[in-house]
Design goal:
Structural class: alpha/beta
CATH architecture of the largest domain: 3-Layer(aba) Sandwich
CATH superfamily of the largest domain: Type I PLP-dependent aspartate aminotransferase-like (Major domain)
Shape: globular
CATH topology of the largest domain: Aspartate Aminotransferase, domain 2
Strand content: 5-15%
Helix content: 25-40%
Strand order of the largest sheet: 1-7-6-5-4-2-3
Number of strands: 13
């Protein structure tokens, strides 16, 4: 990017700062209803002055948002080495399918007989996710991964309560996602954390010491956030079941094991699935999302309702499980997201779904081996779809933090990977290339990382000021936290 382009990007005004009071985009029709005195109607809730709206023409609007799109980074414009965790490529056929009138122009209050196609799709997605997970009972209602996680633990809690079993604790490994302890607290349980062993899996002796009849569940991601498959998973779930507790699988890393092994076969009783991470639906900006929950038959009656069922005559209907925890979202979930996931699954088929995990794991291990030596490996094992490096050597020897290196990657046109997570790895760099990136793209990323590693040794001070080529340079993080400026304020 040229210096001129950088200056223009930084100085470009907000939409409120362009146009003129005489500018307009549309002419609203004359109102054919009586005027209402809003101040008298709303009392103290009425506005004290008119709403400040931008006065711009259509072409000014188009150019403004086209510019914003051009300086924004997306998976369509460059590589995301944090992969399915946040931004996995969304095939265009999925976008086409969800916009078909039979899916996009319907309403959740329509009679079931008028939306049989939509209900049939949801039933098919329930069946597909049940088969993929090995957990046959499915609710599509949760609106996100964390929401699905909460829903699953609520169902587990309802199961214990129905059995007259008052349990107080949930066990979480130190590699857990941050939402896990939050979910535990929201469900009224206390957290018991267990450490990892030297292989990056759950320490069996620590788990054994933590287990008793007070434990309601174990929440475990497998593969875990280190990108490692726990070699003792069946022993772990057997230990949990031996004390009457249930095992929950955080489905965040399902992308690594599609078609290879099913959480239900590992001994898990429930899991949530992040459709954006595994089945390529949109994600980011707060939604919409979808985090379906899959459970064993023993937990099926506690799922939120309604779920889609198939009647004897082949038609589809809505039904609420016998001892449902209740509705956890309005209507039936984010339907457009469900259409995308169903399309993705049907387009790939069983063979294609399996190839997704094979290619994701191959890509991660290829990148890991090429970066070996330039950075420290947190755990030197064959990884799954992601792996974790450590920038601790660079910090200790040259005073360059992982954050500095992540910022420098922006100058190479690459979105930084996840940094400083998982927390048990100092100066962590989590890399997840996914299955969709070509060998050429992976090599370009590795070359950028190796170039940055050389810069750390040759000119460490330079990295403290990166990035250099982005529209906005490095922000003052401390000031942004302590004195956030989140709203535009018009000149009086």
């Amino acid at each position: 990017m040229s210096e001129h382009m950088k200056r223009e990007a930084v100085a470009r005004p907000l939409i409120f700062e362009i146009g003129s009071p005489e500018s307009r985009c549309v002419e609203a029709p004359t109102l054919d209803v009586p005027d209402i005195d809003m101040a008298a109607t709303l009392g103290s809730g009425a506005r004290s002055r008119a709403v400040r709206l931008p006065h711009v023409t259509e072409i000014e609007i188009a150019r403004h948002y086209q510019h914003l799109a051009s300086v924004n980074f997306g998976v369509d414009s460059g590589f995301y080495p944090l992969g399915s965790c946040t931004m996995k490529y969304n095939p265009r056929i999925d976008e086409w399918a969800c916009r078909l009138p039979g899916f996009s122009a319907i309403h959740p209050y329509q009679p079931a007989e008028s939306v049989q196609g939509a209900l049939g799709l949801m039933h098919g997605l329930q069946d597909a996710l049940g088969e993929i997970s090995g957990l046959p009972a499915v609710s599509l209602q949760p609106a996100a991964g964390a929401h699905g996680e909460l829903t699953a633990l609520m169902a587990i809690r309802a199961y214990h309560v129905a059995n007259g079993d008052a349990r107080k604790r949930v066990i979480i490994p130190d590699t857990a996602h941050g939402t896990n302890p939050a979910t535990v607290a929201m469900c009224g349980y206390s957290v018991t954390q267990v450490p990892s062993n030297d292989r990056g899996g759950v320490d069996l002796e620590a788990l054994k010491a933590a287990l008793d009849t007070d434990v309601a569940a174990l929440m475990l991601t497998n593969p875990n956030t280190l990108g490692l498959f726990d070699e003792n998973i069946v022993a772990i779930t057997d230990m949990v079941h031996a004390v009457g507790a249930l095992a929950f699988c955080d489905g965040a890393n399902l992308n690594a094991i599609l078609g290879k092994v099913r959480p239900g076969d590992m001994g898990f009783d429930a899991m949530h699935i992040n459709l954006h991470k595994t089945f390529a639906t949109p994600h980011g900006g707060g939604g919409p999302g979808a985090g379906p929950v899959c459970v064993t038959d023993a937990l099926a009656e506690f799922l939120p309702g309604p779920v889609v069922v198939k009647d004897a005559d082949g038609s589809f209907a809505l039904a609420t499980p016998a001892r449902s925890i209740g509705r956890i979202k309005a209507f039936l979930g984010n339907f457009g997201v469900l259409v995308r996931a169903y399309t993705y699954i049907r387009a790939l088929g069983a063979e294609g779904i399996t190839e997704v995990s094979e290619q994701a794991v191959l890509s991660a291990n290829y990148v890991k081996e090429r970066l070996r030596g330039a950075f420290d490996l947190a755990y030197d094992r064959t990884c799954m779809h992601e792996f974790v490096l450590s920038g601790e050597r660079q910090r200790k020897q040259h005073g360059v933090r992982t954050l500095d290196m992540a910022k420098r990657l922006l100058d190479h046109g690459v979105h930084p990977p996840t940094v400083y997570f998982p927390l048990l790895v100092h100066e962590a760099i989590m890399i997840e290339p996914t299955e969709t990136e070509s060998l050429e793209v992976l090599d370009e990323f590795v070359d950028a990382m190796l170039a940055i590693a050389r810069e750390v040794e040759e000119n460490p001070e330079m990295l403290h000021e990166a990035p250099y080529t982005t529209p906005v340079r490095r922000l003052d993080e401390a000031a942004a936290v302590k004195q956030p400026d989140l709203a535009w304020k018009p000149a009086e």
